[in-house]
Design brief:
This protein is α/β, with parallel strands linked by helices. The protein has 15 helices and 16 strands. Helix content is about 30%, strand content about 15%. It has an 8-stranded parallel β-sheet. Strands 9-8-10-11 form a 4-stranded antiparallel β-sheet, with no helix packed on it. A two-stranded antiparallel ribbon has the order 1-2.
Length: about 550
């Protein structure tokens, strides 16, 4: 188990993959009883716009050996009822469905974060993966036997089989925050969260004290502001790698008070109880020479860059979706994208894909965080963003709640925001990943009350010429309405559902011809594929 970013295990993994790229020796992978030769490292696609992306939350997807945890609770809770704890999905559960996904024609799978989250399973909302407690090691709870060694092996096998089936693997990841790894001493009380504008805006050095948490989720009074030497800590205590075990590397200002970045800036504050990292930490001022000598000018960013380079090297993944980008300093996002791209190039991944979650209607805000605003054509910042401006426009138009003109207005605004960078609306397809709903929405776009015509219209809208990179989010059950204490249906578990991935009402009807890479992005073939795809989604 790696505990520091310069540990021998990390350094060896990075070097070994670079060596493997030079040797270009393929792997042999067993798929459906037959051996397939797979390039290693697995090369990038020539154009990601030819790859349809299927997104899933690992904990909510499948477990081939056990039903959802909620159904075994006391008293039992139905799989479609509100349940804010782990359901038990595993890497093997995802791997067991790769044949189905290949038949569906998926070009890439987008996995929820795989890194280890905080240990206490009694915490609510501790299943989704976005609260990393260890940025170097995968979460053993995704293993078939609950051990880290097995989790590492099974994630490797999942990626290898996906590649053997021609499916790329994108991993969700977080730069902005870690898990709830400490509590605050605020106004004389130890609290897990607070919101206070005076604390958020106070001068540097006036942050409240913090008490680091142990692996059981309890703050330690004797761990106030500092931690004991490494042998005294377990893998579940505080935060890992050890390089991050400094209070100065965390914002320590309580919760964010807005979701709107100030002009030219970013949103400060914890994401609820998940602790914001100071990704833009600058070690150049006098007095930080030792820190700078170890990690460079930007220590927190460098620690995260090397941690995620290790994830690429260890598991041969093909892309990153970056969570909560607009809460980060834009320069830090740019540097991260460049550093990841540089390492990926060194291991033969010529087109490693990075795209960010910038949940905003404003084109200028999205543009601010994505490298396309640079005068450089290639190799600058992250590659793309989830298309939230289009997402906010499509559902109301499809449901006749807004005028159709809202859709072309999105592209007009986009071209204006990209003045001098885009010569046509089609070029925007390089920079956006479109979607209709995802795991953060409170109900599915297509639930029982949605007319088929609305879904078809929305599907067509996702496929303007030159813009063919949509994300599909796995359907759960019968697409229940929200309310009545039901789980928001995008996060209902698939694990253990009878026929959940079958050919009937609760699954997709696979149409391989609808999804496999078309000859060129935005072609007639691609647009026809989009229509076939959306008809395949309907019951």
């Amino acid at each position: 188990m790696a505990t520091e970013i310069f540990a021998d295990e990390v350094t060896k993994a990075l070097a070994d993959m670079q060596t493997a790229a030079r040797r270009a020796t393929p792997k042999t992978v067993l798929v459906d009883g037959q051996q397939r030769s797979v390039p290693y490292p697995f090369p990038s696609p020539g154009d990601w716009r030819n790859c349809w992306i299927y997104m899933l939350i690992i904990d909510r997807f499948d477990n081939p050996t056990a039903p959802p945890n909620s159904t075994r609770a006391t008293p039992p809770i139905g799989w479609d009822q509100k349940y804010n704890y782990r359901q038990g999905g595993t890497f093997k559960g995802v791997q067991s469905r790769l044949g189905y996904l290949e038949a569906l024609g998926v070009g890439a799978i987008w996995l929820s974060p795989v890194l280890k989250n905080a240990r206490p399973d009694a915490w609510e909302y501790n299943y989704h993966g976005y609260g990393a407690q260890d940025f170097l090691n995968v979460d053993e709870r995704f293993a078939s036997d609950g051990t880290r060694a097995t989790a590492e092996r099974e994630l490797t096998e999942l990626v290898e089989e996906a590649h053997a089936r021609g499916i790329y693997v994108i991993v969700d990841m977080v730069l902005n925050h870690a898990a709830r790894v400490f509590d605050y001493l605020y106004q004389g009380q130890v609290v897990d969260k607070f919101a206070d504008e005076t604390v958020l805006d106070a001068p540097l050095g006036q942050e409240p004290p913090v008490q680091w948490l142990n692996g059981f989720g309890f703050p330690r009074q004797d761990w106030q502001d500092t931690l004991p030497p490494l042998p005294a800590l377990s893998p579940d205590d505080a935060v890992w790698p050890a390089d991050l075990q400094r209070k100065e590397f965390f914002r320590r200002r309580g919760m964010k008070l807005t979701d709107t970045p100030p002009p030219g800036g970013f949103v400060r504050g914890d994401f609820d109880a998940m602790r914001q990292l100071v990704v833009e930490y600058d070690a150049q001022p006098p007095g930080q020479e030792a820190l700078r000598a170890c990690y460079g000018k930007w220590p927190v960013l460098d620690i995260l860059v090397r941690s995620y380079q290790y994830l690429i090297a260890k598991y041969d993944v093909d892309g990153f979706r970056i969570d909560t980008v607009k809460y980060l300093a834009p320069d830090a996002v740019e540097m991260f994208g460049n550093a990841i791209r540089e390492f990926a190039l060194s291991v033969g991944k010529q087109n490693f894909f990075t795209f960010g979650e910038i949940a905003d209607r404003d084109e200028a805000t999205v543009d601010h965080f994505v490298g396309r605003h640079s005068t450089q054509i290639d190799g600058f910042g992250i590659d793309a963003a989830l298309d939230f401006p289009l997402f906010y426009a499509v559902p109301p138009v499809a449901k006749a709640h807004a005028a159709v003109a809202l859709i072309p207005n999105v592209f007009v605004a986009r071209k204006q925001a990209e003045q001098g960078q885009l010569s046509s609306h089609g070029e925007a397809g390089r920079y956006f990943v479109s979607f209709l709903d995802n795991h953060d929405q409170q109900e599915r776009f297509h639930h029982p009350a949605t007319p088929i015509e609305q879904v078809m219209l929305a599907g067509r809208t996702l496929q303007p010429p030159g813009h063919p990179l949509p994300v599909l989010w796995h359907r759960a059950g019968a697409d229940q309405h929200k309310g009545h204490q039901r789980e928001p249906s995008p996060r209902q578990p698939r694990v253990g559902q009878g026929g959940a991935l079958g050919q009937g009402r609760t699954g997709f009807r696979p149409k391989p011809s609808a999804l496999r890479g078309s000859p060129d992005a935005g072609s007639t073939t691609s647009r026809r594929a989009a229509l076939e795809l959306w008809s395949a989604l309907l019951p």
